[in-house]
Amino acid sequence: MDMNTVIECACGHRIGLHELLSHGFVMVGEKPVYVYIKYRCAECGTEGMELLDYDKWNVMMRQPEEPAAEAEMAEHERHRELGRIRPEEIIGFARELAHLTYSQFADLYSN
Questions:
Q1: How far apart are CA 57 and CA 35, in angstroms?
Q2: Which pLDDT score, from 0 to 100, does residue 2 have?
Q3: Residue 105's domain spans which residues?
Q4: Is residue 93 part of a domain?
């Protein structure tokens, strides 16, 4: 989203894309003028609605995706080099899980 355009709930929480319920356009003739945005706040649970100028909405939706961080790219490359998980590996993993004690299992979760 454009950093100049912020949608806030009445409680002050900034509304993210994952909180949008729906959106629609207010048309004048054949041209959209406003965009209405319906949202549910993740903090207080309140449903709200906001009207934005269509031009602001259009700019927000055209923002290019941020390039992936170098660490993410390195991890992606490492996974590609490892290749697909083979059926023998899955069977071996299942056998090892079957022999875990509760304390060993708890240790796995704590790390």
A1: 7
A2: 44
A3: 70-110
A4: yes
